[in-house]
User: Fold these one by one.
Assistant:
Number 1:
Amino acid sequence: MQSLLKTNLFSVAETFASGCSVSIRDWKLKEEASQGADRIPASPHCFSLYPYTAQNNDELTLRVNDVITITEQSDPHWWIGRLGAEVGVLPANYVEQINDQVTWETVKAWNSNLSAAEDERTRQEAIHELISTEKTYIDDLLLVVEVFYNPLCAVATEEELASVFVNWMQLILCNARLFRALYNTNDVNCFETVGAVFLEEIDSLLVPYTKFCSAQRQAMLALQEGVSPVFKAKEKECAASPKVGKLPLSTFLLKPMQRITKYPLLIRKILSHTRD
């Protein structure tokens, strides 16, 4: 399994990297900047499991796999959320929450229960790093929806949104699925279990990440030169939010490439402390 996983992951990462012409130095510098920023976690988000047609003026109409920012959950049956530029009520049983599956307290609890044996402890730490950084990455994807995409929907054309964000929502859905599978494994300390999850999910990452990474340079150029002055002004206003540490949208558009090329490094770290 180790050899198969290593081959598959490295091959997939190379495929994505070859499709993206943004310089490695550029996105590594921006990655360091974003990691050092003091940011606030994303609000709760969910995706729609079923289509729903609004029955009243204050309700949202949903398509399958719409990503919604939840603004209020006081009623267990009807939540209030934001979908693009629209705010409205939605049925709670039609959606599944994305970023509530594991808290940082849970991650800390993992780290407090590590094995006493040094090599085994290092291996477990590497596995926990994989899962906790996956949570951080999904939170970044959701912050883009909350802080940039939703407000921009009020001023941008559909063409502008598509050229800049490409298939951002699809990335959220496939990584949420990967994270759910990793977190729900019977034993997060068992590499064989974690490895099996990756082997099963690699194919689901391939199409959406190939699409995004191949369009990443065009997305960056569109953000700089292909959008209206109103779009640029709104993006600058959004970037002032403390939730994103006053970082521009361009920094976050590099994160998918940063993440997909980091998987082989994380897996290699686990493998180096795993017995054959």
Note: The longest strand covers residues 67-72.
Number 2:
Amino acid sequence: ANFIGLLVAREQVDEDDYHLGTIYVTSETHNCISKGAKMAGLRKRSLREVPVDSDRRVNLAALEKALIEDRRAGLKPFLVVATAGTTNTGTVDDLEAISEVCRKHQVWFHVDGAYGAAFVLTERGRTTLSVLEKSDSVTIDFHKSFFLPFATGLLLTRYPQKLHGAFSADPAPFMPEESSQNVNFHSFTPELSRTFYGARIWFPLQLCGVKKWREALDTRLDWTQIFSQRLEAMADIGMELIMKPDLTIVVFRYRGIRPLSIVKSHEGHLNVLNDRLLRFINERGNVYISPTTIDGGQFVLRICILNIRLTWELLEMALKDIKDGAVELSKL
């Protein structure tokens, strides 16, 4: 879906200028964008990595500066990619502010909402995500926060004519002519032979209704808040909550019980300790926690509180394993 969004956004650039087209991302942007750019035949230099701020969101001043400088240099800025729930930390970019920058500089505003856009169904999510309606396009993965058991990506755009322009081709002579009554879906997607994707969404929607999805997402937001608070309460045994979660990804690490000034001078050692904590938890086999790196190499742990089969009892088990692991590390 993000690849399709990239190709639709590129419709703003003349074919002869494709090599000058420029896409703006950050270190937190999912790598499907860089992969999509490569698949679209764009050069590696077409991707501009904009710095993030202290909250790991798009640095707005740096974004605007890059847009201005690149246009002066003769490049063709055509796409800014914001994220509604990054894979690393679940962070939601400042979508309102980014939309204003894009509108000011006449650049396509795409939101990768694969994980996070679904939370717009909840009251808490709407506070942050209602501005999705200002995007030129947004992607949603129904196999993530809508819990479907099969891959189903969706692209929404307010410009269907650009979608058509990106994928339409001269029809085969045996194909009927397109009209408002005869829509050729081949003209709106890279695929020719395609499965009935809509049924995957329509059927559970009819079966369960939006209310069930909303309740499930609200429950996971509640669990995330409680889980984060419980982790913060483990500061006395050396646990640290890296950031307040925007959605349902919790990022944390073991920092020890020594003064912070000493800890900061031993980041490499802390990375080793957190790798040990990760293995301690996962080898118990009760839960599975994944690692990631932030801020240029800080090894941290993350848990995504989302799966439809998840229960609070499993999260309690995870908290116990984290606590037991921290106590073991404090003995070293």
Note: DSSP finds ten helices and ten strands in the chain.
